[in-house]
Design brief:
globular; eight-stranded mixed sheet; 152 residues; two-stranded antiparallel sheet; alpha+beta; binds cobalt (II) ion; 10 strands
Amino acid sequence: MTETATGWRLSLLNRIDHVGIACHDLARGVAFYESAFGMTVVARERNEHQGVSEVMLRDANAAAGTSYVQLLQPLGPDTPVGRFLARRGEGLHHIAYGVTDITAALASIGASGVRLINDRPVRGSMGSLIAFLHPASVGGVLTELVQAPLLA
Ligand code: CO
């Protein structure tokens, strides 16, 4: 929490950036979100460090700063999402919140006693910086922080 000069208290988490959903078959997942909900693919990426292929979808007419659905397919069984699928099956994997300054947010959240999976930011979707918080410290919810790239 940040106290401003005018006394407003600002939350470290300023929006829901995306929900991450684990699936076995990215193409099938995308087809479902397109046909059932009319969503549009805005990015497809392969993130070797996270061990996933991923697709970001949203409303085609959405304004900047909107929330996304992130579909995740593991690059192999011995990856975090691969192990999640084996243990829990397809479904909600994590929630990602937007932050203004991820380094400052990690320092503050870590100092509050929350266990950090990433104690410094790593590369996320679409040029963002991300870091994960351990679900054991967040009521069972794997939680991701996202600092969006600065727009040119
Ligand atoms: Co995510």
